[in-house]
Write a structure and sequence with these properties.
- With about 400 residues, the protein is an alpha/beta fold.
- Helix content is about 35%, strand content about 20%.
- It contains twelve helices and 17 strands.
- The strands form four sheets. The chain has a seven-stranded mixed β-sheet, with helices on both faces. Strands 1-2-3-15 form a four-stranded mixed β-sheet. Strands 13-14-17-16 form a four-stranded antiparallel β-sheet, with helices on one face.
- Helix 2 (about 50-60) runs antiparallel to helix 9 and helix 3 runs parallel beside helix 9 (about 280-290).
Length: about 400
């Protein structure tokens, strides 16, 4: 068999979307899907949101790209707006989440270099983490499925179990630069950091002169019901990576930092040809226009609670399949019992019940709807999910 035109690195399923509208996707044969995957937490405003579409179209007709050799009124405006609603003092715009991770790693190393501690290059990271697919990002995880065949990897990472504060503190040594951690693990199994763990990492950074880097690529931008997941913990990071919801479908990411953490990032230390282009900035502005409306985030919180309650009511009816609910806000996961495989169940929901969800680690499937869902979409999701659980179980369990 000759290689396919698209490099065959994805196990693509039979769904072939050609159109989206609100929380629904439509395939090339006209079939409809309730999209509770949202491009893996990307399509925060659903599909075809009129304000986002208008902003992109108008900017595309005005100015798309000029390079970072010139001043960027568009980038300055969006960066200031993000700064105003976050811990950060400065922002570097990227095209993707993994580029934001690379910027964060470089920012952390450069900070200690600027402080006269060039030996502080190691980041303590956490098992089951997913930070992207670049060489730097796969070096920051212990998962063999992402690392095999790509050695030698980037040195400078120590791996500790997620939510193991004692282990994280024990890993600190004279070469440690800081911690790189997902506030809520997504790919790894939809596990939220415990309050003791996240606040303990912050305290350790303060005591040892280290940097706390939060990866909120999946859990940030309103996904958990607050603008940033760290707000649930009453702490602030030094550096943070965001993407996915920041452009609601337009390729965009960002590395946020405090003035102190970014002290080493001076002219010539980093760059991006496309990062922060006017078209991306218009998309980012449109997303914030919607998300910063007074009732938007409170409604995400309400819908997240309603969805969790609906799942809690449903699970006892299928307790041979489902074990527990994980996550926060509209970033929820359902852990399946060992008698079922989450990836198989995701395929069953998709192919037989028109419900799109996403598999994750630890035998969990993710439910990541657009942040604009209402009660009717929750009811429809639970109906399809319940029917999917009933048919997946087989006639002997009816």
């Amino acid at each position: 068999m000759p290689i396919t035109p698209l490099m065959p690195v994805y196990p693509r399923c039979g769904v072939r979307p050609v159109r989206g509208e609100g929380v629904y996707l439509y395939g090339e044969r006209g079939e409809q899907y309730l999209d509770f995957a949202a491009g893996i937490a990307v399509n925060a405003l659903g599909h075809g949101h009129p304000h986002l579409v208008k902003a992109i179209a108008e900017q595309a007709a005005t100015l798309m790209h000029v390079s970072n050799l010139y001043g960027s009124p568009q980038g300055e405006a969006l960066a200031q707006r993000i700064i105003d609603v976050s811990f950060a003092d400065t922002v570097f715009f990227t095209n993707s989440g993994v580029e934001a991770i690379e910027c964060a790693i470089k920012t952390a190393r450069r900070y200690h270099y600027a402080n006269g501690n060039p030996q502080r290059t190691k980041l303590i990271t956490f098992k089951n983490a997913f930070h992207g697919r670049s060489l730097g990002a796969i070096s920051a995880t212990d998962q063999a499925k992402m690392r095999d065949g790509f050695e030698p990897l980037l040195p400078g990472f120590d791996y500790v179990a997620f939510n193991d504060l004692e282990g994280a503190l024990a890993a600190i040594d004279g070469e440690t630069a800081g911690f790189l951690v997902e506030t809520v693990q997504g790919e790894g199994g939809m596990t939220a950091g415990t309050p003791e763990f996240i606040t303990g990492l912050r305290k350790a950074c303060d005591e040892h002169g280290l940097l706390l880097i939060l990866d909120e690529i999946q859990c940030g931008y309103g996904r958990t019901g607050k603008m940033w997941a760290y707000e649930h913990y009453g702490i602030e990071p030094d550096i943070m990576t965001v993407a996915k919801g920041i452009g609601a479908g337009f390729p965009l990411g960002a590395c946020l930092a405090t003035e102190e953490a970014a002290k080493g990032m001076v002219i010539g230390t980093h760059g991006s040809t496309y990062g922060g282009n006017p078209l991306a900035m218009a998309a980012g502005q449109a997303v914030l226009d919607v998300m910063l409306e007074p009732d938007f985030l409170p409604n995400v919180e309400r819908m997240g609670e309603r969805l969790r309650q609906a799942f809690e009511q449903m699970i006892p009816n299928h307790d041979h399949l489902f074990e527990e609910i994980r996550g926060k806000g509209l970033m929820l996961g359902i852990k399946m019992k060992d008698t079922a495989v989450s990836r198989d169940f995701v395929a069953h929901l998709r192919d037989n019940h028109g419900l799109l969800t996403v598999a994750a680690g630890e035998n969990v499937f993710r439910v990541l709807p657009p942040l604009v869902i209402d009660e009717s979409h929750i009811a429809e999701c639970v109906e399809r999910l319940s029917e999917g659980a009933r048919t997946f179980a087989g006639p002997s369990d009816d």
